[in-house]
Write a structure and sequence with these properties.
Blueprint lengths: L1 E10 L2 E11 L4 E5 L6 H8 L7 E6 L2 E2 L8 E3 L11 H11 L5 H10 L15 H14 L4 E5 L7 H18 L2 E5 L3 H7 L2 E5 L6 E6 L14 H15 L1
Parallel strand pairs: 3-8, 3-9, 6-7, 7-8
Antiparallel strand pairs: 1-2, 1-4, 4-5, 9-10
The chain binds adenosine-5'-triphosphate (ATP).
The site of adenosine-5'-triphosphate has 10 residues, from helix 1.
């Protein structure tokens, strides 16, 4: 579905990304982990067409989208809901921009997300975790087939974060949209993903790609299993060497 071929990017003299090639298959959940400043957000901006690469190409469903925007849906670190729109109006925004509005589906999805009582409320009336659920539903219901999620749970406390990870999986496992997910957390990447791409820094290159073997559906017990810890150790080893 998404393919990057030899993508490089510099800002002035500083080369941030060097020859990045990766792919995300249809329905696949792929995480990108790497040290702070390695260029993960830059990579997202390139895929989203907000920046252009110095070299390389980006394809979505076989069509070149290098330097083009509007082809992917995006969920940022902060929910970025419009304060003057109600929750349901915020969810419908992604569809409105593409000229397709399905009120019933948006309402059903919000109910499924446990937000049925607040569809006519405004963002300031919701907790941080609730707002992120709304942002995720909005991205999920946008017509684009690939979602980019940029550390969507980093601003949440540990309890809410674990809940949100389980919640996201329960919804995504039904929809199976393709997701590219940025995180600093190895646990989060292992729990959620089919594949983990590990980036190095200065400039970022792909250090390794790990295929995550855990079967789906996954539940919270997986996080405490011996197998999970072994895979975590394997990833830490890759990051350190
Ligand atoms: N518009 C820009 N102009 C100049 N330098 C930039 C620009 N955007 C990013 N950079 C630099 O590129 C490097 C990578 O930044 P980027 O935000 O992509 O990293 P990151 O991996 O997402 O970091 P973090 O995990 O801390 O969010 C940094 O050194 C940053 O200072």
């Amino acid at each position: 579905m998404l393919e990057l071929r030899h993508v490089s990017k510099s800002f002035g003299q500083k080369q941030v990304l060097q020859e990045i090639s990766l792919h995300v298959a249809s329905g696949e959940f792929v995480s990108l982990i790497g040290p702070s400043g390695s260029g993960k957000s830059t990579l997202f901006n390139l895929i989203g067409g907000l920046l252009g690469p110095d070299a390389g190409e980006i394809y979505l469903n076989g069509e070149e989208i290098t330097n083009k925007h509007g082809f992917i849906s995006y969920m940022p670190q902060q929910a970025s809901l419009f304060p003057w729109r109600t929750i349901i109006e915020n969810v419908l925004l992604g569809q409105e921009l593409q000229g397709k509005k399905d009120y019933e589906l948006a309402e059903a999805m919000l109910e499924r997300a446990g937000l049925g009582d607040v569809i006519h409320a405004y963002p300031h009336e919701l907790s941080g975790g609730m707002k992120q659920r709304v942002a995720f539903i909005r991205a999920l219901l946008s017509p684009q087939s690939l979602m980019l999620l940029d550390e969507p749970f980093s601003a949440l406390d540990e309890f809410t974060r674990t809940d949100m990870q389980k919640w996201l999986l329960s919804i995504w496992e039904d929809y199976e949209q393709s997701i590219l997910f940025i995180t600093h957390s190895i646990d989060e990447a292992l729990f959620l993903s089919d594949k983990i791409i590990i980036l190095s820094v200065n400039p970022a290159e792909i250090k390794d790609v790990i295929e995550v073997p855990f079967i789906r559906p996954r539940d919270g017990d997986l996080l405490l299993s011996e197998e999970f810890l072994q895979w975590k150790k394997k990833i830490i080893d890759v990051i350190q060497f």
